[in-house]
Amino acid sequence: MAGDDTGVEHTGVGHTGVWPETRRKAAKRKVIVTCAITGAIHVPAQTPHLPITPDEIAADAVAAAEAGASILHLHARDPATGRPTPDPDVFMRFLPRIKQQTDAVVNITTGGGQGMTLDERLAAAVRAEPEMTSLNMGSMNFGIYPIAERHLSWKHDWEKPYLEASRDFIFRNTFADLETIMKRLGQGLGVRFEFECYDVGHLYNLAHMVDRGFVEPPFFVQTIFGILGGIAAEPAHLLHMRQTADRLFGNAYHWSVLAAGRHQMGFCTQAALMGGHVRVGLEDSIYIAAGELATGNAQQVAKIRRIIEELSLEVATPAETRAMLALKGADHVAF
Ligand code: KMH
Ligand code: ZN
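That is the input. Now the predicted structure with zinc ion docked in place:
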């Protein structure tokens, strides 16, 4: 195909030996960088760099956007204890500041954290009507209890029981729940989704919901590796998830990758090489290198940006991201 990924017109240079005058500058492929700022997996005892208060979340989100993230995936935490909270009032203490200080797309979690009801998980998004929310594509085990085995000193009373409770936790995302979220947020409020797929079956769940007409393309499919309860972070699985998504969604989707913990940067690099988009952030990994804590979200964004640019790719701007994902625009949110 003329004008393929190399940007070189195939004019027969190999035959004539003449470097073609028609050679045009390569149009670099745009890579969407999502940064997930704080999440609901890690606990404050693990790292002093996890953003907790609205001030910290806003500051880290703005820095991540300045470093190159065009989507900010956001959870809230109780400012006093750091425990994940679904309270819309807490979200509203940082969302307007992020909007004022960046052009990045705000993406609010609907996965929330352990122990939250579906209504609680949706409350912040219902209030804020953001351009995007996450949408977790199936019920599953979600084990974060091994973190408790590695940490012996705690900062807050809730941390150890919270982690250990995940032994007996089902992350509930039934078909009825998916339908509720798609109708209430998608059809009702013009929200578009980061479809979080932790295993092959989740891709089929999404295809099923597409077949039933609940969501329209283009789909932003976030394939997730290395969560205990989901598919492991092995390169063969990366390829299998990609090929399965290709078969199910053809060119009606954009593929993104996140991998938990030490797999984060390697998997994002492989995804970028394979034509995908990437997600980094302290929600998914608290490290910047083997055994070295990241000092903030922006450090991870800067690292993946360097890698992307070394691969002759470019990070997508917020405007390019909005166009690719058909988002409603920052003027149409309620914060
Ligand atoms: N931390 C991710 C693996 C959500 O917010 O909806 C899961 C996540 C869930 O991002
Ligand atoms: Zn999240």
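Residues 36, 39, 41, 109-111, 134, 136, 196, 224, 227, 283-284 surround (5S)-5-amino-3-OXO-hexanoic acid (ligand 1) (CB under 6 Å).
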